[in-house]
Amino acid sequence: MRAPAPFDLDLVVRSHGWYDLPPWTWDPARRVLARPLRLSGGRVAAVEVAPRGDGLALRTVAEGPLSAAEAAEVRSQVRTCLSLDEDLGPFRALVEGLSGRPEAPALRRALGRGAGRLLRSPTVFEDAAKTLCTTNCSWAMTRTLVGRLVAELGRESPLGSRTFPSAEEMAERPERFYRDRIRAGYRSPFLRALARRVASGEVDLEGLRDRSLPFEEVERRIRDLSGFGPYATEHLLRLLGRYQGLALDSWSRKKLARLRGRRGQPSDRTLARWFEPWKEWAGLAMWLEITEDWRQDSPAWP
Fold it and tell me: Is the pTM of this model over 0.90?
């Protein structure tokens, strides 16, 4: 499977915390990324991705051989997950054009090593549900919530791993299930509402991947989802390749203040002004700057 150059699977996988959440698994020693995938025909396949030469090797396990259409669907889902179809050319040109900016050296190093592509889920629904599980809680709690969703509602793959639940599977459960079994707290009605609106067809999350949609329209549709305030909206936008927002949380605010040598915490308006020159790439520029230490020989990944 071809990959754009330069490309580093490790940097894409560890571009943010999704690789640490089920149903993803990452073996850094073998450099193998794995997860089960739902196929449109109803089957579940387990897929492993590893570097091979200038591209990627895929290993897929299913009950019975895959049809040509199913094999193509696996490749398409993997391309989506690794952001392989995203064109970073305009961002590279902007980095060169703004070489005098304080964050430009970090961005040039990141792009030169093959960073800049973010790990995504096969579906926007999974990204949206996981985003809800990141709001107002620690990363340990996020892992617990997502782990319970997968364990309780996921379908088993041929290798024993379980899928992330579909909108239909989540919509069947009452709100008390999310409160009592998932222990999602205030997120419980939001998770159920998201699943019900997607399962019923009222909301077309996959349609948000359409690059012809204006940014403002995509942003409006996400903000219309229950539980999606400014942070959650911009976080999901980032996973859709729409980087106009910074998706600021307490960790990123503190990290930016420290990197820029500020004693106090700058306002969000000030932080937005810092990255305004990056235009529609502002959120990616910010993210690559604050995660530069994750790309060192001894990554500072928490």
Answer: yes
